[in-house]
Amino acid sequence: MKNHSCAFRGLIFSVLLIAPGILVAQTNLTLTGVSMFGATGPAGNWNGSYDFWDTVGGNQGWNVYLFTGSTNAPSFLNSGDDNDSLNPKLVLKPGTNTIHYAIDFQDSDPSTSCLGINLYFNNDRDTNRISAVVPVGGSDKFTVVSNTVSTYGQDNPIPGSGSLSYTAGGWKATLTDFRTSSDTPKLVSGTDTSPGSDSDYIGSFTLTVTPPEAGKQKTGHKKWKW
User: Fold this and answer.
1) Is 145 in contact with 133 (CB distance < 8 Å)?
2) To which H or E segment does residue 207 belong?
3) SS3 of 12, please?
4) What's the first-to-final CA gap in the chain, in angstroms?
5) β-strand partners of 178
6) Residue 44 needs a FRET pair 20 to 30 A away by CA distance; which of 36, 78, 139, 147 works?
7) pLDDT at res. 110
8) For residues 100 and 87, what is the distance between their CA atoms, to the nearest angstrom?
9) In this predicted model, what pLDDT tens digit does every residue of 1-46 receive, in sequence order?
10) What pTM does this model have?
11) What is the residue-wise DSSP string for 59-128?
12) Residue 226 DSSP class
């Protein structure tokens, strides 16, 4: 009889114990940065104005704050106004990961027609891996932003990524939802998670994570000689 104990031990080491009796796969994907910007239209061109937010501290841009839960009781994934506290350090789990965002804007400024987003992973602050754009005002009609289009990154203008997915260590994260809300509550301020005097753009995005493809295994029975 064939012994499968080695394969079973391999399975044991490919999972992470997160609670008594609960095992989930450990991915190689951590969300470590987000930038957002006002866009002139569905192509995702940055409007070149004051409409830019990021997760870099101490610069002239206001911050992107991420949270889970509801706007009535948000659980913030980042805070403050320095690089470490603004880094969400969110290890993505297999399946769907929905994250809400809140960005403050001055009520006296002209509103933008669309919001763009760049996503950063695994502490690479220089390379936007996923770029998308969506209309404001309660839309989920998002599209990818081409790498020929100028967007706003982490403290500087950069081209779009031209992709809605990113793969690391075989694990693939795909942006499967990006939406704005018609509500504009006063949830955060420009540089901290306390409510400010101006309104906020809020909404959410979803990253769906799929595991590495299983290696091809040989099938059939070995012919034994007796």
Assistant:
1) yes
2) strand 200-210
3) helix
4) 15
5) 205
6) 78
7) 76
8) 15
9) 434 444 433 333 333 433 444 445 678 899 999 999 999 999 999 9
10) 0.84
11) SSSEEPEEEES-SSS-EES--SSSHHHH---EEPPSEEEEEEEEEE--TTSPPPSEEEEEEEETT-SS--
12) -
What DSSP character marks residue 3?
-
Closest Cα partner for 65 from 206, 160, 177, 204?
204
Structure tokens at 220: 């059939």
CA 81 distance to own-chain centroid: 19
| 50-59 confidence digits (pLDDT tens) | 899 999 999 9
Complete DSSP assignment for 127-191: ---EEEEEETTT----EEPPTTSEEE-SSSEEE--S-SEEEETTEEEEEEEEEE-S-------SS
Q: For the chain, give the number of residues.
A: 226
Is pLDDT at 221 greater than 70 in this prediction?
no
Cβ density class 61-90: b for 16+ within 10 Å, e for less: bbbbbbbeeeeeebebbbbeeeeeebbbeb
